[in-house]
Specification:
Strand order of the largest sheet: 2-3-5-4
CATH topology of the domain at 851-985: Four Helix Bundle (Hemerythrin (Met), subunit A)
Largest sheet: 4 strands, mixed
Number of strands: 6
Length: 990
């Protein structure tokens, strides 16, 4: 909205500045970094044998940070975690969690003592010592009253300082103002400057800048002393050791990250803190001018930077490093506060980097010694998401509000999103989380593009939501919709962080799912066979069906990731319900009250500017028609599959997989078409919001139709698929664990398709010339009549009621689904489950190591438990042979005479349990083959032996003895191979 006539000055207080949350982000980053950086220091001070456990697991300690090593450890989770618990136990809890607590307590103490220290350092004296007659106090009290302060703060004087300035420090409730000697000297010679300086300092108090600023300063100084110094000392020893042990080439990425982490953390925190302080200086200037200070009271003559481009570049960097803006910048802000409403590149980049570092530090620190469940990962991700939403969201909302108030074009937010995404990517590479601690880049570096895309999508979406709400909100202030936008942005971004933590980083680091394991899982989920086929289709079509199963096996891990984060349904709902609510309100016919509040003293009437706001029908109709098309396709799918419906006892297997595949395509296809239609029918400034609303409407209606059809399956004869009788069987009972993946997969893919369609539409629109369209009387699209309140006239689709029903349905899924999956989301996997899942679902790569490392691995395997198991198996084998030989010699070969071998048979079973997963695989291929045979033979022989004795089955007992003797020979083979490797390596005594 542009104001006709002379433009009124925009009140910078119309929306929150967002500086407090930026300080909060720095505090959270320092606390998280303190725990994550000091944890390896604490661990290194303890004498443990973690390296031995890594070697015994077949991992090379020099590359223990990569994903291949992590998968090998998880594939032996029972043995590995038991080894760590015995030989490298975690430090006491007070050592693990005590460092952030110590940092906080020390910072609190410094915060209390900082004002006293600053006053004594400057040898400041109380005001009364230089103001004998009280004239100066009276003047200061009047200025404090002008600034709206309840009372005059404590005032001291630094007589040795000759500059004409002042400083305020302390905390909001007990501020201290320090006047410099030069300022007192100019009180009578330059009263306007004296007044401007004092009102500026009082503005800091009125704006409540002190507590958050100096608490951050205290935390920062304590962090430098208690974390950076010991961490650098520890890293120095690691670097020296790498050079000494000739392993620099292997450890270079990890060690360089270790050196860069504190350096870049220091730079990041200082740059972000300086940027906030510069902004607060400008806000204080504006407040002082509002209270009557002379805008030229701070005028200082400055020289233009001399020299070439290099000198000017260094000067620019120096400005970013400083905590006070240049005087010309302050004068420009007094003339036009536009810089305070812009989304600048540096804060965007720093925020993205800081958020990723917070997320990585928290997860690394909190999950080092325990496996986290899905809800805990989601909740941890809320912290960085809230910080990003608070900083980036506020900046983008302020940018949009300024553009709406001034009539200037509303930025898309893409540029800010690029800087945000770049910051998140750099933060991830710096911490190396999921990228392999001993690698520069992840195995699939192309997937890092997703991080940048996520930043762009988030900023683009926030900007369009802000534009919609700023165009329709009628309240006195934009703060309520801003709060809604920040909360929904936190929800959306936390889901991204959770998904990237659990799935994205694993994919980027090279994780691959086992196709065989996935197909086996599908057969477990969909037991049965598929003997039926459509009329006219030969049984050879089973090859096509197997191809469908293989395709589903590839897609299934992706769909599984869409239900891993518990808040994904809520995030998807926020993506389109928030803009839908704003769109449903409609543009105000009169000047919104928030506009009048942001433009004080303006009595002008607001007139629409920029692209007209299309009717909500333009995006709802494609979604509704897409939903109807989805219903028709679902009916067609059931009718088609009814022709190949197998018998009641054969349903499941490939038939059910094909059924769900066709259902999924029938849900996603119309959503994609609806997104394309909506992209054509909406303008550039609202295209993303429009495509999201249309696609999600079609997807939601399709899901509703699918639930009805599945629940009523069997009631309409031509549509029978999974059932053959008309009984009510709810879809969530019939499909069970498949339903959430189907629903979430549809909603998530609809959102992704909407994003891609909107991006393609925007790029295509830029590539061709724009055509102007005449706007109607209230900024409406051509051909749309409006009635009262700016709503389209005539009896048409009740869009508000439809929007309300859709919003309630979306929120219902967001609430119901996490409750439906609560057991899975709150389950903390134990070692056995983690080991089973990794072996079944993941392709665990074979690690290639040098011959010397292989020898060390075999020695660790033998030393930490392998020798005990081999000796035990050998002893049982010798005892069994002795009993059998004695029985043959004495001719006591009846089962009643041989029952004495039952304890030995049972002991072989216990050994088999250790061999088959409770202890490490042998890190030698030759020995491992015999070790695996030992486990299989001992388990089978133990079971057959005890079963034969119970049943008195002579033939089965003979078979069992042969199996146990073969197991004993396998144990002897392992022993010989391990002994040979250790002997050749020079491990005397092993």
């Amino acid at each position: 909205m542009a104001m006709s006539g002379p433009r009124s000055r925009i009140d910078e207080r119309a929306m929150g500045a967002g500086t407090t949350v930026r300080f909060a982000m720095l505090v959270v980053l320092l606390l998280a970094a303190s725990g994550a950086m000091m944890l390896p220091v604490i661990k290194d001070l303890r004498t443990t044998d973690q390296v031995g456990c890594q070697l015994a697991a077949g991992i090379d300690p020099d590359t223990a940070g990569d994903m291949a090593s992590a998968l090998n450890a998880l594939g032996q989770a029972i043995a590995y975690r038991a080894c760590i618990a015995k030989y490298a136990p975690p430090p006491p809890l007070w050592e693990i969690y005590g460092w952030p607590v110590l940092l906080s307590l020390t910072a609190a103490l410094l915060f209390v003592l900082l004002p006293v220290w600053k006053a004594r350092r400057n040898r400041a004296v109380p005001l009364d010592s230089v103001d004998r007659d009280g004239e100066l106090r009276t003047l200061l009290a009047g200025l404090a009253e002008t600034a709206g302060l309840d009372r005059l703060p404590w005032v001291v004087v630094d007589r040795a300082e000759i500059s004409t300035g002042a400083v305020v420090f302390g905390r909001n409730r007990r501020p201290t103002v320090c006047l410099y000697g030069g300022l007192l000297a100019c009180r009578r010679s330059d009263p306007e400057r004296f007044r401007a300086v004092l009102l500026h300092e009082f503005a800091h108090i009125a704006n409540r800048d002190l507590t958050v600023t100096y608490s951050t300063v205290a935390m920062w100084r304590v962090f430098l002393t208690l974390v950076i110094v010991p961490y650098l000392a520890w890293v120095s020893t690691q670097v020296y050791g790498a050079f000494t042990w000739w392993t620099w080439s292997t450890h270079a990425p990890s060690l360089i990250r270790g050196v860069l982490l504190p350096a870049l953390t220091v730079a990041l925190v200082h740059l972000a803190r300086s940027d906030v302080l510069r902004s607060r200086e400008v806000y204080a200037d504006l407040a002082a001018v509002r209270w009557g200070a002379d805008p030229h009271g701070w005028d200082v003559t400055t020289r233009a930077p001399a020299g070439g481009s290099l000198r000017r570049t260094l000067g620019s960097l120096r400005r970013h490093w400083g905590t006070h803006p240049r005087w010309e910048e302050r004068r420009d802000a007094l003339a036009d506060p536009a810089p305070l409403f812009g989304a600048r590149a540096l804060p965007m980049f720093l925020t993205g980097a800081a958020a990723t570092m917070v997320n990585v530090h928290l997860l690394t620190y909190l999950s080092t010694y325990e496996l986290y469940n899905l809800w805990r990962i989601q909740l941890v991700s809320l912290a960085p998401a809230a910080l990003v939403a608070g900083v980036i969201g506020t900046a983008l909302w302020r940018t949009v509000a300024y553009a709406v108030l001034t009539g200037s074009p509303v930025p898309s937010g893409v540029r800010a999103g690029l800087w945000l995404g770049a910051g998140m990517g750099v933060g991830g590479l710096l911490t190396g989380y999921g990228m392999g601690g001993y690698e520069w880049l992840p195995r699939r570096p192309a997937l890092l593009v997703l991080v940048v895309v996520a930043g762009v999508a988030f900023a683009w979406w926030v900007t369009q939501c802000a534009h919609l709400w700023a165009s329709t909100w009628r309240g006195r202030s934009l703060r309520p919709p801003l709060l809604i936008g920040l909360l929904s942005g936190t929800l959306v971004l936390s889901t991204w962080f959770a998904w990237w933590t659990m799935d994205g980083t694993a994919w980027a680091a090279g994780t691959s799912y086992s196709g065989t394991g996935m197909r086996r899982l599908l057969l477990q989920l969909f037991p049965g066979s598929d003997t039926g086929h459509p009329a006219g289709v030969s049984p050879g079509a089973d090859g096509t069906r197997s191809a469908v199963v293989s395709a589903v096996a590839v897609v299934w891990p992706v769909l599984n990731g869409f239900v891993a984060a518990p808040l994904i349904p809520a995030a998807i709902a926020a993506l389109w319900v928030v803009p839908l609510a704003a769109w449903a309100i409609g543009r105000a016919a009169d000047t919104p009250r928030w506009v009048a509040g942001a433009l004080p003293g303006s009595g002008d009437r607001a007139t629409p500017a920029g692209e007209p706001m299309p009717s909500l029908r333009r995006v709802l109709w494609p979604g509704l028609l897409g939903g109807a098309a989805s219903w028709l396709l679902l009916v067609a799918v059931q009718a088609y599959l009814h022709t190949s419906q197998p018998g009641p006892l054969q349903r499941g297997g490939l038939y059910e997989v094909r059924y769900l595949t066709w259902m999924f395509m029938a849900l996603v296809g119309p959503a994609a078409v609806a997104a394309v239609v909506a992209a054509v029918r909406t303008g550039r400034g609202r295209r993303l919001a429009g495509t999201l609303i249309a696609a999600e409407t079609a997807a939601l209606l399709g899901v509703a139709g699918m639930l009805v059809l599945v629940s009523a399956d069997g009631c309409v004869r031509p549509l029978d698929t999974l059932a053959s009788s008309c009984t009510w069987h709810p879809a969530w009972q019939l499909l069970q664990w498949t339903l959430p993946r189907l629903v979430n997969g549809t909603l998530v893919l609809a959102a992704i398709i909407a994003l891609l369609v909107a991006a393609a539409g925007s790029l295509g629109r830029r590539a061709r010339p724009q055509r102007t369209r005449a706007a109607g009387p209230a900024g409406e699209a051509p051909g749309e009549r409006t009635g009262r309140g700016g709503r389209p006239a005539g009896r048409r689709l009740p869009v508000r009621r439809v929007a309300g029903v859709l919003a309630v349905a979306a929120l219902g899924i967001a609430v119901v689904e996490p409750r439906y999956l609560a057991k899975w989301h709150t389950m903390t996997p134990d070692s056995a489950s983690a080991q089973q899942w990794t072996r079944q679902w993941s392709d665990v790569p074979a690690l290639s190591v040098s011959a010397a490392t292989r020898e060390r691995q075999v020695h660790a395997w033998h030393r930490l438990g392998g020798h005990y198991l081999l000796n035990h198996a050998t002893a049982d084998f010798d005892h069994l042979r002795g009993v059998l030989r004695a029985a043959v010699d004495t001719r006591h070969t009846q089962l009643t005479d041989l029952a004495k071998v039952r304890p030995t048979c049972a002991d072989f079973g216990r050994i088999a349990g250790w061999v088959n997963g409770a202890y490490f695989r042998v890190p030698d291929p030759t020995a491992q083959a015999a070790w695996q045979a030992l486990g299989t033979q001992a388990q089978k022989g133990s079971q057959d032996c005890q079963r034969a004795l119970d049943r008195k089955d002579d033939a089965l007992f003979v078979t069992a003895m042969r199996e146990l003797i073969a197991a004993g020979k396998s144990a002897a083979t392992v022993t010989r191979r391990v002994t040979s490797v250790l002997h050749e390596a020079g491990y005397d005594g092993y």
